[in-house]
């Protein structure tokens, strides 16, 4: 209830809190603060209490700023120490500040931290067993944190001390590029720093900036033209449960972007990674072990040109809707008598009409690192990060759907209210310098209140229709993991990593309604009559439990790594369908069937001679599924030299055994026998990753690996459910086979300066038994899955990130980024020609579903050095891609469009910041086409937002 109260207060304040309130006279605040605090103690409304507290906030902020400005501050140095030869983090390296007693040793991640350093200029001595001692001079400490990342050279014979001048790296993006340079696989990254420069609110928004990635339906990730089912997802290294009923996918719109430390997209496999991805593995990494105490608060509000202050339709509200939970308003009554169910079910058939307010979001995060033991030894440390984020947005999308091949033309609007909030609680404990235990928790809740209202000319039935659909969908996902990292020096440097994780997801579609009124086209003056209308309740639960363990042992010329995974996934799905049928046999009156939606299904209108409430659910509308996976791997990491050239070979194999089981009852009786579908596979998946170090800044990478793509439980279940939004039945295929993929990658990458990169890649994938979606036009539209015999996907991509500092010192504040991906794919399929009575099957080819022929991202980042103003302009475009595979009708394609976003950020003092953003600056519409004719067009409008941030 406290969360509901806070959200309600902020939501109501959103329309009348203004920026000038932040700059009230300090003297008035000083004398008024005592009065405010006394008033807060008295009994008053929560809204008034919050407002009074808010008025004292500038006084508190300015006071903190004053003391921070004049207080004497010590500084700190932190960073990561890595091997120059392999790029791996080094454990147990000693860092000493010469002339002082201050120092530290690196931990399991190669990280170190030295605190409470008085202002001045120092020299650092870095030494480790087997590595040449390095001395870094001219390290300036001025009260602010210094990040100093260091590479060490292996001591193959006695070397003199290496003396260098300090090179400070203060950019998280630069650190991630350094991580990418030393990685063992082909990968791309996006940092929290880069996300901050964009208007991106969710992880799906942020990921579309990555080379070769596109986002479909604002939530599903396609990598290098490979659709989401061929890609993998992990959260902090743990597998996550699926969040969608109809496909194997993860909805990236459920993870708020400000809970992320970075996102890593791995594009080539190694044996220690899961074997079920081909396009890429998206690793979302949430906020981790902090280097210092941090508290940050963000508040933003936005305006959409289509939506804000305009009338929109939403479902009838429940008291917990504001936090994404139904309060029982939409709950199924659960009675055995159908008429009793109809009477007890709330009359929520008619949507409510509201004026859309401004969108709002806020977040609060806090973290700290606590040393346990002697100061600066940093052997025992406890760290925590907690965060809360919340977003409430509204959207009105005008739509036109010209389904000309079946003779239907629709026009109208889709309205949506989206709620998304997340909680993060990550705890870590480092001890003895070589051990780390972590407990990470992430919970996200989302809800979409969606209403569509279309007018329609159904020429096939010679009718004019009015469609109204009301859908409330709520999704919950929790991912928790307990993990450990340990190094045993007495066992020859053996390191062990283990992880146990639990991921649960729940999706509920309570009380989905579809209403149709119709009249004949040749009777335009007659009233509309209610058709047979639909109501349903659905729920899906999924739970994934996994256990991982990895052993790594250094040999004389290589590293040996081996380990395994045990994973179990459980899922169940149930949906109940009901039809509301006019009782024409009982003599229902015309006056009843033509009532407005607000009144037609009132309680008194059910019964004989009125409306009947009839369940149409089948036994096959429910299923239970299980998936058991066991895997083991062996991997060698071998650095070597050949003709004075340096190489690194990472190779090995992974074995995965999978058993998938789907059970569907044959009847509705409690003890009904089951129809069982079972799919068993054992796969050996070899991989090779070879890196040639042309110089200290340039890598040439080659990768070859095998991977698989298994059907999801939902795709194997013959259960069908009706998609109200697309007007089609979605059903599985128990005859699906797993797909097998062979992948080849080649990349040349160079890092000419800190924060800069140039990369060129080519890739090719051979897919056997590719799993595709198919749309079948019969008396009803049906979407299902099938295996294509073979498919090929290939292409190339280029990435550039370059500072313009070579043009002069001032231009060093301008950074250009860009990436371009060119993709070609071909999949074989059986094309059916002719009519339903006389068909001819031919083998043809087409692109992979969801594949774009090209993807473009570009951006310019500018930072004005004096006022610290930053301006960022971002551009995104994808090529024409196959959206739906047709059967007896033509395929449907999504047409390209240019998306331009812009952000302007202005810091005020050291702790306060304002950011202005514009999304979809060109106001481009989404267009689907069929045989070069517009099938559907959707307008989303521009969105303007302002965000205020305060941190200390």
Instruction: Give the biggest sheet.
Output: 22 strands, antiparallel, barrel
CATH-defined architecture of the largest domain? Beta Barrel
Number of domains: 3
Strand content: over 45%
Q: What is the assigned CATH homologous superfamily of the largest domain?
A: TonB-dependent receptor, beta-barrel domain
CATH class of the largest domain: Mainly Beta
- Coarse shape: globular
> Could you name the ranges where pLDDT drops below 50 across 5 or more consecutive residues?
1-72, 156-171
Radius of gyration over C-alpha positions, nearest whole angstrom: 30 Å
Give a quick precis of the structure.
This protein has 10 helices and 50 strands. With 952 residues, it is mainly beta.
């Amino acid at each position: 209830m406290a969360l509901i109260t806070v959200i309600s207060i902020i939501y109501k304040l959103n329309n009348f809190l203004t920026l000038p309130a932040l700059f009230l006279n300090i003297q008035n605040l000083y004398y008024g603060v005592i009065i405010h605090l006394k008033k807060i103690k008295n009994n008053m409304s929560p809204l008034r209490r919050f407002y009074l507290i808010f008025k004292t906030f500038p006084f508190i902020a300015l006071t903190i700023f004053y003391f921070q400005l004049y207080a004497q501050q010590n500084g700190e140095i932190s960073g990561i120490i890595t091997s120059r030869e392999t790029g791996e983090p080094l454990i147990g390296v000693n860092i000493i500040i010469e002339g002082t007693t201050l120092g530290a040793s690196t931990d399991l991640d190669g990280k170190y931290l030295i605190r409470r350093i008085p202002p001045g200029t120092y020299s650092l001595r870095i030494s480790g067993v087997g590595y040449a001692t390095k001395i870094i001079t001219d390290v300036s400490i001025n009260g602010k944190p210094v990040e100093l990342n260091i590479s060490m050279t292996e001591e193959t014979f006695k070397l003199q001390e290496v003396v260098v001048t300090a090179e400070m790296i203060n950019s998280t993006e630069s650190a991630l590029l350094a991580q990418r340079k030393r990685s063992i696989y082909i990968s791309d990254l996006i940092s929290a720093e880069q996300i901050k420069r964009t208007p991106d609110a969710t992880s799906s928004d942020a990921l579309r900036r990555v080379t070769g990635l596109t986002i479909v339906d604002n939530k599903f990730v396609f990598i290098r033209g490979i659709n989401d089912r061929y890609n993998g997802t992990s959260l902090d290294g743990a597998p996550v449960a699926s969040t969608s009923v109809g496909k194997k996918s993860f909805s990236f719109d459920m993870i708020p972007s400000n809970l992320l430390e970075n996102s890593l997209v791995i594009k080539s496999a190694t044996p220690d990674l899961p074997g079920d991805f081909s396009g890429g593995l998206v690793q979302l990494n949430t906020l981790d072990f902090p280097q210092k105490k941090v508290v940050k608060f963000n508040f933003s509000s936005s305006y959409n040109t289509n939506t804000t202050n305009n009338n929109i339709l939403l479902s009838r509200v429940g008291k917990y809707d504001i936090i994404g939970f139904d309060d029982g308003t939409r709950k199924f009554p659960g009675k055995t008598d159908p008429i009793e169910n109809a009477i007890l079910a709330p009359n929520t058939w008619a949507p409510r009409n509201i004026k859309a307010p401004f969108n709002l979001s806020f977040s609060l995060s806090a973290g700290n690192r606590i040393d346990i033991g002697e100061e600066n030894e940093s052997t025992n440390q406890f760290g925590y990060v907690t965060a809360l984020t919340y977003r409430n947005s509204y959207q009105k999308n005008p739509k036109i759907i010209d389904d000309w091949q079946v003779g239907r033309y629709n026009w109208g609007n889709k309205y949506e209210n989206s709620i998304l909030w997340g909680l993060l609680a990550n705890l870590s404990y480092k001890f003895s310098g070589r051990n780390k235990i972590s407990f990470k928790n992430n919970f996200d809740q989302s809800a979409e209140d969606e209403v569509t209202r279309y007018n329609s000319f159904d020429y096939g039935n010679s009718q004019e229709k009015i469609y109204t659909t009301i859908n409330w969908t709520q999704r919950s996902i929790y991912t928790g993991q307990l993990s450990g990292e340990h190094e045993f020096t007495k066992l020859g440097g053996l390191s062990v990593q283990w992880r146990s994780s639990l991921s649960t997801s729940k999706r509920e579609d309570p009380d989905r309604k579809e209403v149709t009124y119709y009249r004949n086209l040749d009777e335009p003056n007659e009233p509309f009559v209610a058709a047979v209308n639909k109501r349903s309740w659905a729920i899906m639960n999924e739970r994934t439990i996994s256990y991982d363990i990895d052993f790594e042992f250094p040999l004389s010329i290589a590293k040996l790594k081996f380990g395994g995974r045990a994973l179990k996934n459980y899922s169940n799905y149930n949906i109940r369908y009901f039809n509301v049928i006019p009782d024409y046999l009982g003599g229902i009156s015309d006056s009843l069937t033509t009532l407005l939606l607000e009144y037609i299904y009132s309680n008194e209108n059910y019964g004989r001679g009125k409306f009947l409430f009839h369940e149409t659910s089948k036994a096959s509308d429910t299923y239970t599924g299980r998936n058991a996976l066991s895997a083991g791997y062996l991997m060698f990491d071998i650095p070597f030299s050949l003709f004075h050239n340096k190489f690194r070979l990472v190779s090995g194999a992974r074995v995965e055994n999978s058993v998938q089981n789907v059970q569907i009852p044959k009847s509705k009786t409690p003890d009904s026998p089951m129809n069982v579908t079972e799919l068993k596979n054992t796969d050996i998946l070899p991989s090779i990753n070879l890196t040639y170090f042309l110089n200290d800044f340039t890598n040439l990478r080659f990768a070859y690996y095998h991977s698989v793509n298994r059907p999801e439980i939902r795709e194997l279940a013959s259960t069908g459910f009706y998609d109200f939004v697309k007007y089609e039945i979605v059903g599985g295929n128990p005859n699906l086979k797993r797909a097998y993929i062979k992948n080849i990658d080649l990349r040349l990458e160079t890092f000419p300066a800190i924060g800069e990169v140039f990369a060129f890649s080519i890739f090719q994938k051979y897919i056997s038994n590719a799993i595709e979606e198919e749309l079948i036009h019969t008396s009803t539209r049906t979407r299902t899955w099938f295996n294509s015999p073979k498919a090929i996907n290939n292409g190339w991509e280029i990435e550039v990130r370059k500072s313009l500092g070579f043009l002069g010192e001032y231009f060093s504040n301008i950074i250009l980024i860009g990436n371009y991906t060119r993709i070609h794919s071909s999949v074989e399929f059986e094309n059916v020609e002719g009519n339903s009575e006389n068909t001819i099957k031919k083998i043809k080819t087409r692109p992979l579903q969801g594949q774009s022929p090209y993807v473009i991202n570009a951006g310019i980042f500018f930072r004005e050095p004096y006022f610290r103003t930053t301006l960022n302009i971002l551009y995104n475009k994808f090529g024409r891609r196959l959206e739906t595979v047709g059967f007896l009708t033509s395929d449907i394609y999504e047409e390209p469009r240019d998306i331009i976003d812009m952000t302007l950020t202005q810091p005020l003092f050291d702790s306060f910041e304002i950011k202005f953003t514009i999304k979809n600056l060109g106001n481009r519409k989404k267009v689907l086409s069929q045989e070069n004719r517009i099938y559907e067009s959707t307008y989303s409008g521009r969105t303007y937002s302002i965000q205020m941030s305060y941190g200390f």
